[in-house]
């Protein structure tokens, strides 16, 4: 089954890949690897803002992380000239969580992205990962995630 068909079965349509917001490129291809710049939590209404541990709960943070994973796949599709089925596997995610100093559930927040990628991609979605706290993130968003992918 194609990746986009599986995503559609999950109710997800990949958006156009977001344009970079500063002086960087959205992805870099090197050999069979694609390095995707950090994607911030956004939905149809714009940036998903919040601070975990101060008014935003883990479930809302995980939902925000899922939007980052969708944006990562959109960038990957662009890197693959529109053919996301070139994906071999998700290699690594680094997730940044806008959180208070005493918040310790960053892994549970980033699980929103990890769980979605495994659900959508099966074993190809299993990856190495870091989940870290940040005092603040661009535009006040709740989550930012970067990714490394292997393609054919």
TrEMBL record:
Domain of life from the UniProt record: Bacteria
Cited Pfam families: YjgF_endoribonc
InterPro entries registered for this protein in UniProt: Endoribo_LPSP/chorism_mut-like, RutC-like_sf
Protein name as it appears in the record: Endoribonuclease
Residues annotated as domain Endoribonuclease L-PSP/chorismate mutase-like: 5-140
Lineage, opening ranks: Bacteria, Pseudomonadati, Pseudomonadota, Alphaproteobacteria, Rhodobacterales
């Amino acid at each position: 089954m194609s990746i986009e068909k599986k995503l559609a079965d999950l109710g997800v349509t990949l958006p156009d890949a977001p344009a970079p917001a500063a002086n960087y490129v959205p992805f870099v291809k090197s050999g069979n690897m694609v390095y995707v710049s950090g994607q911030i939590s956004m939905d149809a209404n714009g940036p998903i803002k919040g601070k975990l541990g101060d008014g935003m709960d883990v479930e809302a943070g995980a939902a925000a992380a899922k939007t980052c994973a969708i944006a990562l796949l959109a960038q990957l599709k662009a890197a693959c000239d529109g053919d996301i089925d070139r994906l071999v596997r998700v290699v690594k995610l680094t997730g940044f969580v806008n959180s208070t100093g005493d918040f310790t559930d960053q892994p549970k927040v980033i699980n929103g992205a990890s769980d979605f990628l495994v659900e959508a991609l099966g074993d190809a979605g299993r990856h190495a990962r870091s989940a870290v706290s940040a005092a603040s993130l661009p535009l006040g968003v709740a989550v930012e995630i970067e990714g490394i992918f292997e393609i054919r």
